[in-house]
Amino acid sequence: MQIIDGKKLAQQIRREIAKEVEELKASRDITPGLAVILVGDDPASHAYVKMKAKACKEAGIYSITHEMPESISQNEIEETILMMNKNPNIDGILVQLPLPTHIDATKILELIDPAKDVDGFHPYNFGRLMTGLDGFVPCTPLGVMEMLEAYGIDPKGKDACVVGASNIVGKPMAALLLNAFATVDICHIYTKDLAAHTKQADILVVGVGKAGLITEDMVKEGAVVIDIGINRLEDGSLTGDVDYEGVAPKCSHITPVPGGVGPMTIAMLLKNTLKAAKDRS
Questions:
Q1: For residue 13, what are the contacts with CB-CB under 8 A and spacing of at least 6?
Q2: How far is the C-alpha of 126 from the C-alpha of 195, rounded, in Å?
Q3: Residues of the chain by 3-state class (helix, strand, coil), percent to 5
Q4: Which of 5, 96, 171, 202 is catalytic?
Q5: What are φ and ψ of residue 187, in 5° steps?
Q6: Interior CA angle at 167 toward 166 and 172, to 5°?
Q7: pTM for the whole thing?
Q8: 175-194 tens-digit pLDDT
Q9: SS3 state at 87
Q10: Which pairs from 101-105 meet CB under 8 Å and 24+ separation?
Q11: Is residue 101 classed as helix, strand or coil in its secondary structure?
């Protein structure tokens, strides 16, 4: 069993990005720019945004955060996005989710210029992903694919099972694996017999936010297990959706939580922002 060290891999990728940012500044006088919209006082959202800002600074990427009160109107957020769409120094626009319930999140995400959609949530980019065309891919699934490549795990011809069908993780993850010629099975809350699906998987990717959902008896011997879930226990510790202690001995490769997929998500955000800056006309 080999642990997939996402933290170490992310650090390596971030160093490479910092080098490319320096080269872009020197060759084209372009400093990649990322703008973040943060609405409300959710502690987790504020913590994530702070981590993203720190990562941008280390990579030499300019970043700005538009902090807005919980009571902000739909129109005010839309006006901010339209302003950033027109700003030539902003390459990426990120709306930190979730948004307050009175805000139409779909409309907000669709308003972002697809060329600045570094989260990969715009229907235009999602459509390009589904059809195998170049575009922006959501950061967490993209990070998983980078991990598989770094550890020499080729999805081609493998049976893959994705547990979770969200627009942010599950669906794009399935599309990426399908584009890599895996045979993909997608499970969700209404799947009748989850174990019947997971036990067949050579590559099992889980991201639903339910601690200990996947147990040892649900995993095939020698499987690659990617745990995207992150859950905070009563004692304050973090755990994934997979029973790590029980499942790990059966795996060929497994990601820990924390230190697995999480650090890769931020690294991919930087990578997407750099990609947007390189594509500046």
A1: 146, 264, 267, 270, 271
A2: 29
A3: 45, 15, 40
A4: 96
A5: -115, 155
A6: 100
A7: 0.95
A8: 999 999 999 999 999 999 99
A9: coil
A10: 102/74, 103/39, 103/72, 103/74, 103/77, 104/74
A11: coil
Q: What is the rounded CA–CA span in Å between residue 193 and residue 182? A: 21
- Token pair belonging to 261: 């997929």
Q: Over pLDDT 90: what percentage of the chain?
A: 93
Residue 281 reports pLDDT greater than 80: no
Question: What one-letter code names the amino acid at 15?
Answer: R
Q: Which of these is catalytic: 117, 119, 227, 241?
A: 119
In the structure encoding, which two tokens stand for residue 229, read together?
A: 């879930």
Report how far residue 47's alpha carbon sits from residue 163's, in angstroms, rounded to the nearest whole number: 26
Q: What is the pLDDT of residues 59-86, one digit of tens each?
A: 999 999 999 999 999 999 999 999 999 9
State the amino acid at position 72 in one-letter form: I
Confidence band of 96 (pLDDT split at 50, 70, 90) = very high
What is the pLDDT at residue 44? 84
Task: Please indicate whether residue 2 is annotated as part of the active site.
Answer: no
For residues 120 and 269, give the distance between their C-alpha atoms in angstroms, rounded to a whole number.
10
Query: Do β-strands 224-227 and 231-232 pair in parallel, antiparallel, or remain unpaired?
Result: unpaired
Q: Are strands 92-95 and 183-187 parallel, antiparallel or unpaired?
A: unpaired
Selecting among 5, 52, 185, 227, the annotated active-site residue is 52
Q: Is there a cis peptide before residue 258, judged by omega within 30 degrees of 0? A: yes
- Condensed to tens digits (0 to 9), the pLDDT of residues 126-163 reads 999 999 999 999 999 999 999 999 999 999 999 999 99
Does residue 119 have an active-site annotation? yes
Query: At 229, is the secondary structure helix, strand, or coil?
Result: coil
Assess whether 52 carries a catalytic annotation: yes
By C-alpha distance, which of 248, 197, 258 is closest to 221?
Answer: 248
User: Domains of the chain, with CATH numbers?
Assistant: 29-115 (3.40.50.10860), 139-262 (3.40.50.720)
